Amino acid sequence: MLRLEKEVVIARFISPSGETVQAPIEIRTNPITGRTSRVAFSRIGEREAGTDFLPAPPPFAGDTSQCPFCRPRLQSKTPRLLPELAPDGRLVRGGSVLFPNLFPYGAYSAVSLFDDTHFVEIGTAPPASYADSFLNCADYLQRVLAYDAEAVFMAITQNHLPSAGGSLLHPHLQVQADRVASNHHRFLRAKAARHFDENGSLLFSDYLDHEKTEADRYIGRTGGWEWLAAYAPEGFFEIWGILPRVTSLSQVTADGWKDLSRGVLNTQRFYRSLCRNGYNLGLLLIEDGMSRIELRVVIVVRSNYAPWVRSDHTGFEVMLGDMATFTAPEDTATGARPFWN
Ligand SMILES: [Zn+2]
């Protein structure tokens, strides 16, 4: 079964004022990926440039004149889906519109807008706009699967603001499906299958059961989705939402997408309370009818989109492959819980 492992190492040095200092660093092993990450406790409470207050909107946030996602230009500036996928060329649900990504990363690559609002500060979007956009993504992915049964490696992702990788300010989700697995698809499929073979149970359900028993990192629920701070974070203030026992899009109801949207917005409001304005979101699926990967959304804070901010990926993450965060996941859960009530 799942074991949560950690090891504490101590750095010893003489401080500038002459005292001997012992600084603990916790090295935790992610029970899903096997990767290690570090919590550098000595940096807790450190003043981080650009996070004293929520950064102001970028100076060009009001300039919608060139935005291809704003309604006056949407029809003429965005591509259309092949008629085999959608006879109308775009999928529309409430205020959300989905269309192909003009700069695709895979065979089936699309963009799903939330609505016609050009700039939305983190934590302030109407939950219905997220539900509509997720529903559009699910609709698109199921159309793709009906059209190309081998394009089973699927993902819904979000880059909120350019510091998280977003190229356009107008909020949107990316959605994609491919016959070729990504690294994380490949790894997760093998891990979840091995876990099922060895235990006869589902990986994320077992992880969730453990975390609900231990409770330190459990945050709350929105409908069927259960939320927790990641045990061994691979990003700052990493939060997971798990929909236990659900392994396919076809099993998610309209209410299920609404419940996911509420949890995503709760997370955003928590991040906003920390004066963070950038984040990434990801939900991975393998729709091959055999996958043991349950739906899990991962959300991490990224460096603020503001002047003079340090990147959240240092030589340590890029070269050693271990994320080093400064906050204990148990404290992340404590801080997030009020946003679920
Ligand atoms: Zn726009």
Structure in words:
By secondary structure, the chain is of the alpha+beta class. It is 27% helix and 27% strand. It has a ten-stranded antiparallel beta sheet, with helices on both faces. Strands 1-2-3-14 form a four-stranded mixed beta sheet, with no helix packed on it. Strand 10 (225-229) and strand 11 form a beta hairpin. Bound molecules: zinc ion (ZN). The site of zinc ion has 6 residues, from loops. Zinc ion is lined by residues 64, 67, 69-70, 118, 170.
Please sum up the structure shown.
By secondary structure, the chain is α+β, with helices and mostly antiparallel strands. Helices cover 27% and strands 27% of the residues. The chain contains 7 helices and 14 strands.
Shape: globular
Small-molecule components bound: zinc ion
End-to-end separation in angstroms reads 32 Å
Could you give a short account of the major beta sheet?
10 strands, antiparallel
Strand count: 14
- The largest beta-sheet arranges its strands as 4-5-6-8-7-12-13-11-10-9
Query: Compute the gyration radius: what is it?
Result: 21 Å
The DSSP helix count reads 7
**Proportion of beta-strand residues:** 25-35%
